[in-house]
UniProtKB/TrEMBL annotation:
The keyword Transmembrane applies. This is Uncharacterized protein. The chain crosses the membrane at residues 20-42. Keywords: Membrane, Transmembrane, Transmembrane helix. The keyword Transmembrane helix applies.
Amino acid sequence: MKMESTSKQLLYNVKKIVGVYQLIGILLLFYLQGNYITIFNVKNLYNEVLSMGVRGSKKVNFGLRSLPKIS
């Protein structure tokens, strides 16, 4: 039992880290294309990605459920 919960926790942590790097990668892609993103647009993108994770879609799981919503 202990081993199973540890592996689930590890998988969750890996998903969370990968999700953060995916978000950084998306932002870097926009930056490299020359579309300079304002703080407002970053906030909207972050909240949109966060809401996609919260909706519980199995296909789009960024692992950002535990991150706070920017107001």
